[in-house]
Amino acid sequence: xxxxxxxxxxxxxxxxxxxxxxxxxxxxxxxxxxxxxxxxxxxxxxxxxxxxxxxxxxxxxxxxxxxxxxxxxxxxxxxxxxxxxxxxxxxxxxxxxxxxxxxxxxxxxxxxxxxxxxxxxxxxxxxxxxxxxxxxxxxxxxxxxxxxxxxxxxxxxxxxxxxxxxxxxxxxxxxxxxxxxxxxxxxxxxxxxxxxxxxxxxxxxxxxxxxxxxxxxxxx
Length: 220
Description:
Layout: E1 2-6, H1 10-22, E2 26-30, H2 33-39, E3 46-50, E4 52-53, E5 56-57, H3 58-68, E6 73-77, H4 82-90, E7 95-98, H5 103-116, E8 127-129, E9 132-135, E10 140-143, E11 146-148, H6 152-163, H7 171-177, H8 188-202, E12 209-212, E13 216-219
Parallel strand pairs: 1-2, 1-3, 3-6, 6-7
Antiparallel strand pairs: 4-5, 8-9, 9-10, 10-11, 12-13
Keywords: DNA-binding, Phosphoprotein, Transcription, Transcription regulation
Domain OmpR/PhoB-type: 124-220
Domain Response regulatory: 2-114
């Protein structure tokens, strides 16, 4: 699932990025109306728009989305009163959710909107990674019919690579997007161990995660 996220609060945006990645979603993110409109050339399954933005409102972005097609839109609103609800729906929203919200509730609303529009909520086809089949919906990896057992952190790292396939990810980018189960940020040395273990589990005579010397790693 590919999501366009438009949110100017850096803390909320980063939290949503991490949560969406852990759910197996790909995304593009913007912090303003101008940035969002520049990203509208891409194809998205759904758009999540904050109402109040530095250079306008999410309604401005929604109008442009509606001009281009029928991509579903969910508004993030700071107020859960009747006026804001009506404004969101009258300005083209398929649904809205008031801040603060729980990530599980947001994901449920995303899936409900997609179901109502007759769209798939999850990829039915596994993602091929080397000789492995990654089922993003179930969070399981298989090779030749046998499950490849990954730890939570290894799987989270794999999802980051999948959502950025072909792009070179620096060690700093990877460190910024993963943390261990205790909530502490992963160290540079620990990242090396995770990448090594992921390679050992996924590679079967074929290169899966390529080291780009001096730059970082790339999933091929």
